[in-house]
Request: fold
Amino acid sequence: MAPHFYMIRHGKTLANLCNKFAGRTDEPLSDQGCEQIRGLVPQLAELDIQVIYAGPLCRTMQTAEIVSNNKIPIYKADGFIDIDLPHWDGLSKDEIRTSFGAEYPTWLATPELFHVDGCEDLHQVQKRAVEQVADITRLHESGNILLVTHLIVARCLILHKSGQPISMFRGISVDNGGVTEL
Reply:
């Protein structure tokens, strides 16, 4: 029997509330995000989660800690870190458009073609996230496992699991605190 995976996107942050690209900034959950995740705890308790793997940034680890409530083991999973676009980190969408206007339309319209030297693209994100899930699968013969990650990683995992191409990236909706069964 193989493990069964559930995935949750971290709770809301100030960047989410201010329409900023958080990327790999180590931003914590906002007060609203903490409350949002606390509100999910009863629903998640019904899933009988036995272990949590979370991306290493503050907002994913904080989400995992709230869900765990010191009752479920948590492990850092570097493969679930957000996309590496360092020149966008912390900028609003308008600031990105102004400073990197040539890149942003591709990111919005055809994200599967988006590539900037020195940065990750969606294919790379998907590859490392899928490899992380495979590594976790090798460690657990069965049980319910919760993955805590970011929007971009979550979309990439959902596309892989459903056999859809990266070109469908924008068609996948994953809300902050949204729980998905993989």
